[in-house]
Amino acid sequence: MPKHYIERILRARVYDVAKETPLDPARQLTEKLASPVYLKREDLQPVFSFKLRGAFNRMAQLDAEARERGVIAASAGNHAQGVALAARHLGIKATIVMPRTTPPIKVKAVRRLGGKPVLQGDSFDEAYVHALELVKEQGQTLIHPFDDPDVIAGQGTIAVEILKQHPDPIEAVFVPVGGGGLIGGIAAYIKYVRPEIKVIGVEPEDAASMHAALQAGRRVVLKQVGLFADGVAVRQAGKETFKLARDYVDEIILVSADEICAAIKDVFEDTRTVAEPAGALSVAGLKKYVAREGACDKGLIAIESGANINFDRLRHVAERAELGEGREALLAVEIPEQPGSFHRFCRILGRRYITEFNYRYADSRNAQVFAGVEVGGDDERLELIGRLKENGFPVTDMSHNEVAKLHIRYMVGGHAPGLENELLYRFEFPERPGALLKFLTGLGKRWNISLFHYRNHGAAYGRVLMGIQVQRQEQALFEQMLERLGYPFWDESENPAYLLFAGTEELEL
Question: Within a domain: residue 409?
Fold first, then answer.
């Protein structure tokens, strides 16, 4: 199979619309990691993503009859723009089915490039099903975003450029993984030409379809995927791409959303450009690899795969980057409600930068403080927690607590003594007009809502934290109703962030 793909890759037509992108030294990352780091700048393509390589190569193979019928694609955005630009160049009509959660910047780009966007479903998979229905009805050719040999070969041209641009020793190439088209093409070429180079995929922890497939030895369908890195939010790896990954990919590294945000910041500091979450995925994986394996003297190459980020999402990225870098600690600290105790607490923090401080009087004995503190990494965070405890301040570390990071930090001081039968749930739902109203309507009026926090984070999914009064014997019935509602939910009733700052009783530390 590798030779078959080598021939396809070397014959691929991509440069009618794509360009050979630079392999830039990442000087600040190199200094930080004590290892030579390079960024393959696919964000500099005409559509700010690598996707037009595979799209154009696939469409260039169509005969005159197929071109006359037109093409259709399903995409969360980057493949859509690639297909639209390729279609315009080739004089082909293109319909693009996109999830309703797609960032507006990508929908507008498709229209600007001459494609016809059709918004359908809340995920790539739902959009893909609708695209297949349209193909049956109208007869267009489906341009698959990843599971097609010509698409895979087009993406593989990136590997040809990398090996030409960097003939010196290479330790590993880090590749963002969604459906697997990019890593399939890159791995097939690199392992044939320079098999000593590691090819390492990187996936979000909450959208790890290829990782799950490789572990199971077969393709699996994830129940749900996180949409923060929407460019790789795929529930099932491709059939062809799974075979390539199984044979030629060395490993898949999983990273958190916070680690992706930190990687976006790293890319910005080195290039002064803003990568989209999927575009910075490889940098997050590269950093995790170095943390695990230690510094090396051979090249580490990360594919910066795209820069189509919705501007509203930058707020969320900025808030979480310091946490992802381990440079912010979120701490819940109990201090005595007496003169001088607050001053003593601040003296222990020293000259550290305070990123957040929330306090509200609760009773005459103790106060709960929610503090965000800048630290130099995990070691310093743990050292600070130890010093606070040694000085008589009970501490709960909230740095990795999703409820604390998403909600409680913005609503501290909400104890409700005497409130009975309160349960706490966290929800996610697609962020589109009317979504919140639909959510509330679906809950009905049987149970009383006692706490509700919603904040638009500029992300594809909205998040809600809700307290609701439910008799214990009715909890199973209530959760059956939530299952029918169809939104992902988590019971957070025992979450310490809630119990400390918003629960009906104070938590004993």
Answer: no
- Domain with 390 in it: 326-400
Same domain, 158 and 285: yes
Respond yes or no: is residue 51 known to be catalytic. Answer: yes
* Residues 317 and 331 reside in one and the same domain: no
Strand partners, 24: 39
Lookup: tokens for 98: 């996109």
> Is there a domain that residue 164 lies in?
yes
Q: List the beta bridge partners of residue 49.
A: 306
Percent of the chain surpassing pLDDT 70:
90
Q: Is residue 158 part of a domain?
A: yes
pTM of structure: 0.78
Residue 95 CB partners (closer than 8 Å, separation 6+): 70, 71, 72, 73, 115, 116, 118, 134, 140
> Is 271 found in the same domain as 157?
yes
Distances (CA, A) of 84 to 108, 203, 413: 11, 26, 51
Instruction: State the catalytic residue, choosing from 123, 305, 399, 450.
Output: 305
**Catalytic annotation present for 493:** no
Q: Is residue 405 part of a domain?
A: no
Q: Annotated catalytic residue: which of 51, 265, 287, 405?
A: 51
The 10s digit of each residue's pLDDT in 192-229 is 999 999 999 999 999 999 999 999 999 999 988 887 88
Query: Parallel, antiparallel, or unpaired: how do β-strands 461-469 and 489-491 relate?
Result: unpaired
| Residue 308 DSSP class | -
Specify whether the backbone of 371 is left (phi greater than 0), alpha (psi in -120 to 50) or beta: beta
